[in-house]
């Protein structure tokens, strides 16, 4: 176990571990140490045994928020309390049991980002999930219940919060950024309740509260979106894409829309696709992380044509690069809405293209299990056990993609040619 005098030089030099955690113990004050996590987070700690001989460990503060000198003074105080028969960890626990909902939410975000809270499949919670949790916390949960004592919440309290979010009581005007307007609704309300219930569950597991106070609260039933584009709408959609191309619509945005239509990928999977993940010779894309973890997804020749035709920007790894930075292009939804408007299509979102891909596959006679694998719903184990991924699955993806490409091309072919004396007619 490494030891050294904890000063700024030694703390800065202590390298974070590759996994788990590492502790650098102070060579002068027994029990005083610095814990480092793989994320780079460094926290001063004190470890001791209480009067009952039980080993305890408490956090003194994060390095950068407090200095080594401040941490050393705090360690002396806490160890002095131990010498006097007190148990600082128990005092902290008792104080935490009176935490407000806002405080527990803040604790959750800090601990989850440090990798100390495990989610699905006992893995650290994904950054994208935490971003959504933070948005729900700040926009809806804190304004309604943030001031309440967590341990005194009731089922009625959280179900009322859900009703308030559903009814738009936390709605706000659209800000100056690129995000949308927080408007509430049943879907958002149900997800807010789910997030709060999960946070309270983690707080109980970590000992911040003795019992989950609102276990059994009921989430609103959400009508699952089943909107898909009909054959006629796909033809109209293809015509509108061709019209958009002639009228100066952003080609990167249109390429993202085409890719989504021809693959059934999730929006972020397509928008954030990196060139290194695309294996054209094998006809697949190797995603290191998706909504259902890492996946290898088949991609048909028609979609590959779109992907491989995208111009490469030096220093930008994305298939669909942003024009203003090193990130991925993010404005496809606005383009999609304009194309739908020109096509006379209502009630559709980019996710509708995913439903459409699955529906077309069903019409072509492919089984539900095959369609689930095509869309990335099935696990790799299920795919490998029941579907020959090199042939049967690729065949299903290619045929579905080809059929959608045919309908889009039929629509494009119907667009009237440019006239020199008038605007393009759609």
From TrEMBL:
The lineage of its organism: Bacteria, Pseudomonadati, Pseudomonadota, Alphaproteobacteria, Sphingomonadales. This is Integrase. Residues 165-187 are annotated as: Disordered. Keywords: DNA integration, DNA recombination, DNA-binding. The keyword Hydrolase does not apply. Belongs to the 'phage' integrase family. One of its GO terms (biological process) is DNA integration. Gene3D superfamilies: 1.10.150.130, Integrase, DNA-binding domain (3.30.160.390), Intergrase catalytic core (1.10.443.10). It comes from Sphingobium indicum BiD32.
């Amino acid at each position: 176990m490494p030891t050294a005098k904890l000063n700024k030089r030694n703390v800065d030099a202590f390298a974070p571990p590759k996994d788990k955690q590492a502790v650098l113990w102070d060579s002068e004050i027994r029990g005083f140490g610095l814990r480092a996590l793989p994320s780079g987070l460094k926290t001063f700690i004190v470890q001791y045994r209480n009067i009952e001989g039980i080993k305890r460990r408490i956090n003194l503060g994060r390095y950068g928020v407090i200095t080594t000198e401040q941490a050393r003074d705090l360690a002396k105080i806490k160890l002095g309390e131990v010498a006097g028969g007190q148990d600082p960890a128990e005092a902290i626990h008792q104080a935490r049991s009176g935490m407000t909902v806002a405080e527990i939410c803040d604790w959750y975000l800090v601990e989850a980002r440090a990798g100390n809270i495990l989610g699905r499949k006992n893995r650290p919670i994904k950054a994208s999930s935490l971003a959504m949790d933070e948005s729900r916390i700040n926009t809806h949960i804190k304004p309604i219940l943030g001031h309440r004592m967590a341990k005194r919440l009731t089922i009625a309290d959280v179900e009322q919060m859900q009703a308030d979010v559903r009814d738009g009581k936390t709605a706000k005007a659209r800000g100056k950024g690129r995000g949308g307007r927080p408007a509430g609704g049943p879907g958002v309300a149900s997800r807010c309740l789910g997030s709060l219930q999960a946070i309270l569950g983690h707080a109980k597991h970590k000992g911040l509260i003795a019992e989950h106070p609102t276990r059994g609260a009921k989430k609103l039933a959400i009508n699952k979106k089943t909107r898909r584009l009909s054959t006629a709408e796909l033809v109209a959609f293809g015509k509108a894409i061709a019209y958009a191309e002639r009228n100066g619509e952003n080609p990167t945005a249109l390429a993202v829309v085409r890719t989504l239509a021809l693959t059934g990928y999730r929006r972020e999977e397509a928008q954030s696709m990196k060139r290194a993940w695309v294996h054209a010779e094998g006809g697949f894309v190797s995603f290191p992380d998706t909504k259902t973890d890492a996946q290898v997804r088949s991609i048909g020749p028609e979609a590959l044509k779109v992907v491989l035709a995208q111009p490469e920007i030096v220093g930008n790894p994305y298939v669909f690069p942003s024009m203003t930075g090193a990130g991925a292009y993010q404005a496809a939804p606005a383009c999609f809405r304009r194309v739908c408007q020109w096509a006379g299509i209502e009630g559709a979102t980019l996710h509708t293209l995913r439903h459409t891909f699955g529906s077309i596959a069903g019409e072509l006679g492919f089984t539900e299990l095959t369609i689930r694998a095509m869309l990335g719903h099935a696990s790799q184990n299920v795919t490998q056990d029941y579907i020959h991924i090199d042939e049967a699955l690729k065949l299903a993806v290619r045929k579905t993609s080809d059929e959608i490409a045919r309908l889009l091309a039929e629509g494009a072919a119907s667009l009237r040619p440019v006239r020199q004396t008038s605007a393009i007619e759609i």
